[in-house]
Structure formats: C-alpha cells, structure tokens
Amino acid sequence: MKAVGLLSGGLDSTLAIKLVLEQGIEVAAFNLVTVFCCCTPKHASCSAARTAVRQLGIELKVVNSTEEFLPIVADPKHGHGSGMNPCLDCRILMFRKAHDYMEEIGASFLVTGEVLGQRPMSQRRDAIRLIEKESGLGGYIVRPLSAQHFEPTVPEREGWIDRERLLAIDGRSRREQIALAESLDLTDYPCPAGGCLLTDRVFAARVRDLLDHEGCLRLPDVTLLKIGRHFRLSSEAKAVVGRDEAENEDLRTHAREGDAVLELADIAGPLTLVRGRADARELRLAAAVTARYSKARLLPRASVVCRTIGGADDVGLTVAPAADAGLADLRIGGSAAEAGT
Question: What angle separates helix 87-105 from helix 125-135, to the nearest 10 degrees?
Fold first, then answer.
C-alpha cells in the first residue's frame, strides 16, 4: 500500500506521515512551493521539508506552482484571510497537484497533517469539506492527527490503515504534537508552524499596493517585494531601498531597462531602485530617501548619483535627507514608528 503525504516540513505534517509509516505503509512526500514560502530559498525546494524527509527516510517530490498561484493570489475564488493569503484556494491547488502525483506513482490515498480547528481559515470543518470536494479527493484524505473527529475515510473503512491507531487532536495548541514528537524521536522541525509571507502584514500591504497600481502579479515584481524598504513615490513609481550590502547587490541584479538606480556619490549607503515612470521631482524624492538611510542623514545636504538603466548619462542630485515624518506617508505597509528604521 502506498500513500502520498503532504509535507510542509512543519511539525504536524511530519508527525502525520510518521504515524502512517509506523503502520508499515509506504509514503512518498509531496511539497508544493511558491515564491511566498518563508522557508524556501530561491523558490527551489523547502529547506524544512528536506530536513523532515531525512528524518523520515522517505523520498520528496517538490512542485513549484508560483506562476499558477499568482492569479489566485490576485483574485481568489474563496477570498483572502487577514492578509493577502488565499488559504482555501491555496489548499485546493495543493491537493489537486498532490492528486496528480498520486496517479503518477500509483498511490491509493493522501495523508495530511491537518488538525481540526487549528487554522481559522482552512481547518474549520466546513472549510475542510470544501477543500476535499473541490480537489476531487473526497473520501481519500486521511488526517492521522484528527481522524477520530471525522467520519472514516475509504482507506480506514477498507482496512488499508488502522483507524484505532489514529488520533483525536483538535484546537490551536501544539502541546500534544510536541509530546508525540518526543515519543517518536522527531526532534528537528525547523518550521513548526509553517510560514507564508502572504500572512505578514507588511508584505501583504506590498502585494496589495502592487495589485492596486499594476493590476496583476508578475513574478519579477513579486520577487522584488521581498527585498528592502518600499516607498510609494506616485501612482506610477515606487522606490525600493536596500537595507544592507547583500540587499544592495540583490537590487542591482533586479534592475531592468527603464529603472533608475540611485547611490550616494561619496558616502557609503544604500542602493535605491526606482521602478515605474518617475519625473524629476520623484527622483529627487527618491534621492532624499536614499540619503536618509545613510550617514548623510546627519548632514544638511547630500550628493546622490542617479543612473537610468538603458538611458542617458548619470545625473547628480543634491538633496536634503528625507525627514522621518514624511517617510511615514510614503512607506508601503509600514507604520510611522517603522518609517525611520
């Protein structure tokens, strides 16, 4: 008997697969990644999931669905959560992709780490039923941690898996899972509660701002949202300011034709990328913001060099560093207290 186990790398999914393995059932792990996964370097594969499969001794299948997921984030059928997280639509996509993998390898059912009542949007009873129905997996999803709270699935009724050895955990506390992990000698779960950037208040505000001004989500623009401090200069232009040398270099690689790149002329400081149609006033504003995040913030004036990618010669700008009070109105997703950091 073979099953596919949805594996985020978090505690719950790792435990769910371990409980099924303990019954002598072969499990192949499945991990769906997108650009929004917190523990996925360069959107290639989840570091937490790789750690989990090493402990479990099983194979891992990774599928990157970023391009398919971006339109869902922009306009989810079942709405957003508290941020820009379309949790129900995300789970439906994940289950459908896992279903495809089940058919590919000849697996008989799906295993998930869902715990009834743990996540307010996607792990309510009605939400679980909706996801199951729209994914086409009705009756074939086994939830080892919460199975006793649900009607027996086909694998349980048919005896493919022993229902009596499945659990009845519910609610948001993870005390039972942590104790279970200790008893099963699972000690390394680096992403215990999972992680999605779309639930982060500041990042969600950046996504919403991008949608408001561009009308859609494109991967290069979404990737840029993960870097630096973001400031809305006008309805057509924004500035992204690097926070350290690594981010400066990252921003440099993101610069494309038509973007403006600003740096202090004679003082170490951030690199600022301006994207969109910026006029002379807005470029001066970006220069003032650049000066604010350097040692030049202590000076009355600072010299900033502005270079347009694929454009004319460099332009020198002399500006006063931006005041923190003004930054609060420009910063995307940040509060007044955060504007100066």
Answer: 40
